[in-house]
Input
Amino acid sequence: SSSESSCRGPHIYTVSNPIFPELGGTSYSIIGLYLTVVLTIGRFVRLSFSGQLSRVIYEQLHDVDDLVDYCEVVYIARYSVQYELEEELYRKLIKIFRTPDLLIQLTRRRDQAPPAHQRILSRGR
Output
């Protein structure tokens, strides 16, 4: 049928003798119940953890004060109607977030931070 053709992923078919008497018009077997429960729990677990790997770099940053300050500078540029400066700063901010090495360098702990971190921000010109 058309609903079966739209399903993705592997299909599992079980053949087993019915153990339980008919419940609600259908009969259930131990294997069928087991697979239903295990696959349902597995799907919920997978959905709850999906996307975590891609977010971990942003959630585990040590010192984000410089990034917050930079975002505030972008906001100030917009507030003071300096749109060209705002666009330039925004593009640099996006470059920082798209470059993991640069992001890690800028968010190191203060005792590990390189002294010339401003040089990193000016490299993108």
